[in-house]
Design a protein that fits this description.
single chain; alpha+beta; 3 helices
Length: 160
């Protein structure tokens, strides 16, 4: 990809959600930069993932551990496997700086996670900070803000 168009960012967000819905975690993990982060704040308009508690704040190593756990044949908490579906509103582009290789999208979503007879619905918005590395878009930060961030949550098994 030599140049980026706004539609490329939108397509990227849809493709990322599809990888998660299809449980293709290895391909999904490869969308992240080596120093990429996955952040789920625990407060409204939280600005700092390190000095404030978060529901999740995972670097590439922690993401790798979770992906291996989800893919493991001996992961008893995933028998049967959890499944998910994203319903995305059209992603909006908040930052588009091709010369700097920096991009940001904002996407409102509904997300359903199910396992056995338990189905959980989450709503919120995802912010993708993307960079262009060697002609490929990569996730520098995926921030997932849940609408009910302050509710008691069960074990969130998958990635939103």
């Amino acid at each position: 990809m030599s140049s980026i168009a706004p539609q490329d960012l939108i397509d990227f967000v849809y493709r990322e959600a599809r990888l998660l819905d299809e449980l293709d975690y290895e391909a999904w993990l490869n969308l992240f930069t080596e120093d990429g982060r996955y952040w789920m704040p625990a407060e409204w308009r939280q600005t700092d993932p390190l000095l404030q508690s978060s529901l999740m704040y995972e670097d590439r190593l922690l993401l790798r551990v979770r992906v291996e756990r989800l893919s493991g044949a001996r992961t008893f908490s995933q028998k049967p496997k959890s499944r998910a579906q994203h319903l995305l509103q059209a992603p909006q582009i908040d930052l588009f700086e091709p010369d700097a290789g920096a991009f940001r999208t904002w996407t409102s979503f509904h997300y359903v996670e199910t396992r056995n007879d338990v189905q959980t619905l989450y709503a919120g918005w995802a912010t993708h900070d993307l960079v262009l590395l060697e002609g490929t878009l990569k996730i520098k930060l995926k921030r997932v803000d849940l609408l009910n961030f302050d509710a008691p949550h069960g074990n969130i098994q998958l990635f939103m």
